[in-house]
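Recap slide: Guanine deaminase, sequence and predicted structure.
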Amino acid sequence: MTATLYRATFLHTPESPFTHADALRAETDGGLLVQDGVIRARGAFADLRAAHPDATVTDLRGGLLLPGFIDTHVHLPQVRVIGGLGLPLLDWLDQCALPEEARMADVAYARGVARDFTRGLVGAGTTTALVFGSHFARAVDAFFEEAAQTGLRAVAGLVVSDRLLRDELHTTPERAYAEGKALIERWHGVGRALYAVTPRFSLSASEGILDACAALMREHPGVRFTSHINENTREIEVVRELFPGARDYLDTYERAGLIGRHSVLAHNVHPSDRELGVMAAARCAAAHCPCSNSALGSGFFPLRRHLDAGVHVALGSDVGGGTGFSLLKEGLQAHFMQNLMPGGVPLSPAHLLYLATRAGAEALDLPDVGAFEPGQQFDAVHLAPAPGTPLDAVFRHAPSPERALAAAFATGTPGDVAQVWIGGQTAFTRA
Ligand SMILES: [Zn+2]
């Protein structure tokens, strides 16, 4: 297969700007040589052109080329209920999210939702997502099928619960185990799909359900684990009442054997020092969802405490508690919240890009994606605002790629996403 040489101004963060001062790599009029979906070489366009005269050139000048975004927390069944503003978590679940999640029992309905959802993700420039699936196994199948069609790298699973939601969303430990095992056998490692064992949260999951989840993790090395933690103060109180023997919220998962390198916990707005220490030691990542934390009034994410403790952090959109699929917006909201909170961490454009890309790959233990290193998959998003828009004006006059990147986070939307590639294949093109 002939190689393609992408000509663009590109930026990426192969290393963390939280630990490396020069983590942001930018190339103006750069080249990325891609063959069979894999980046083979990277450098100045003129040099790569001279070295590979036979490659087909794709000219992407006039915008920014970034690694595809990686969303580490997003809910499949909530795409159609984005925007229920004005309620705290537990009321929002009862009134907005759970009635819609119950509709996923109808597999035709679930298929339509899966289509809206994957289009929403990829159209926002997201190429990999850790997805909270549905409480219904057939809806999870429908999602994996839809993701395979789009090309999305999906890490997802059956959401399991056995109390305090709605009857039709409850299962039993035995059924949770059997359905999870069957889904793992059907999907884990098939194409780009990976499976994530997903108890909804300890509030709705008994020790029996958590033990069933742990059995799946033990019996299928390589599957991921995800759930919620420490999102809302009322939620934390209820979990404390439900698990009187647990040291804290994390301990409800930890005691079951669910916390390790392949675990990603969403929110963690109100952690204890013990919890942060355990997460760091286990290399369990936190998915920070700033729009959701703001919309549901959950609180300010203590990024400084996570970093000081050594807990890895990535970004999530938390659709539909969050307000949309764009990780540009999540980056901006993270920046706002850190600016406003006492002791917040000043976030540069490099930090925002890292949190939206490579940090997610590290959280999910996916070394092949998240940056533009030779050997990695060509997962990319081309931001090219329509002519005449303010972002287009900034791009045309930006004194450096870094300033253009800052503007992309400040004012970019899915409308500025011109094209998205996953594994070298076009997954989205703006109409
Ligand atoms: Zn969530």
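The pocket of zinc ion is lined by residues 73, 75, 228, 266, 318, 321 (CB under 6 Å).
Residues 69-363 form a domain with the TIM Barrel fold (CATH 3.20.20.140).
(End of recap.)
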